[in-house]
Amino acid sequence: MRTLVLNAGYEPLGVVSDRRALVLVMNGKASVLDADAEHPVCGVDDAWARPRVILLRNYIRIPMSRTAPVTRRGVLRRDRARCGYCGATAGTVDHILPRSRGGVDSWENLVACCLRCNNLKGDRTPAEMGWSLRWKPQAPREGAWTVRGVEREQPQWEPYLAPHTVAA
């Protein structure tokens, strides 16, 4: 089980094991916002609800530029493992403008791609193939992407990972 850690300002910081989260709570460094009472953590003398979301008591200062690095796993996750050309299940990543022609590893130039489309396309551009992309690739927005350790979001985390808007 994994636990979402929120900064004192309710911004998501990362994901830790449920045991690490329980230690933070027991040492008074965090408080539990959401817990799973059906699957408790059992000790010798007591049992505690398994924390799903914790809030740190002290604010942790984080750098302003927390952009997600460009990785194969990140591109597949951004595109929900769907091929950008045909919509089939994707297992590879394709450069829209091939590297052999000066294409770079960027969020805007990479798209998830099935093996069939990747092999057919080769080192050509989609325009040369007569193909079009199903969506425009772009860098992921804030939210779960800026949180370290979040690979698969849990439904209970959704309210805490949603972008916060400030009322004017």
TrEMBL record:
Keywords: Endonuclease, Hydrolase, Nuclease. Gene3D superfamilies: 1.10.30.50. One of its GO terms (molecular function) is endonuclease activity. Residues 70-119 form the HNH nuclease domain. InterPro entries: HNH, HNH_nuc, NA-targeting_endonuclease. Pfam families: HNH. SMART domains: HNHc. This is HNH endonuclease. It comes from Pseudoclavibacter endophyticus.
